[in-house]
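INFO batch 0412 | record 1 of 1 | parsing
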Amino acid sequence: MMKTITLLLALLAASASYGQIVINELDSDQTSTDTEEFIELLSATPNFSLNGYIVVLFNGNATDNTSYTTVDLTGFTTDASGYFIIGADAVPGVDIALGANNNIQNGADAVAIYQDSASNFPNGSLPTTTNLVDALVYGTNDDDDVELLAALGEMTQYNESAVDSEIESLQLANDGTYCTALPTLRSENACTILNSNSSSQSRFSIYPNPATNGYVNITSKFAGTKKVVVYDVLGNQLINTTLAGERLNISALSSGVYILNITQQKATITKKLVVK
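INFO prediction complete | emitting tokens
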């Protein structure tokens, strides 16, 4: 019984640690005047409400690494695939346009998502980990800004210039790191690493949750089948199946809280599933 309780607590803790929205891709530098620079966010579920979230841009070259732009996401949602684009006016399908060009600095700088009010981050605000959801410190062959990294609780400053920053973007891999590749606006990142850890959650969507109609949809940005295991709160295995499509039949489950474990290739997530 103690092993069962320990397993359950571990699963619930893992589920609670997953973020709802991440910085999925950043293209801060193109040829000439940067007319198609963008920040791509990705939510764990499609059509995710961004009410109460903001994106803050920090200037790593300024005194104290203060902010120079705050974007209020209230009133917006991610799209049916979980994407949301902030960028220059010319970016195809941009959701929030920042202007014609040169609005996202090239580095050493940072992009951060906060669950906070935009009024708390006027230009010139200091970077902080309070209410921080996700952060990316980046540059284009710049020296590491150790103060900015520390202020945002990050360990790595990612370099967009692995080959040529003017044709590359920084893209989130499944292990939580960033790598460079040709931009992949609103599509699967080119540098996915399949030995993923908790960042795998951004590759799967599970809905509706709570589930009310005897099924739950499990979509993935990977091709191929998914192994799905459902546990009750005592750690008993109730469903163990391989899912070729997206819909999982949970009509045999009573109302309550369950643990949903999904494995595809080498990517695994654990989520809490509520059945009503």
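INFO post-check: DSSP finds two helices and 18 strands in the chain.
INFO record closed
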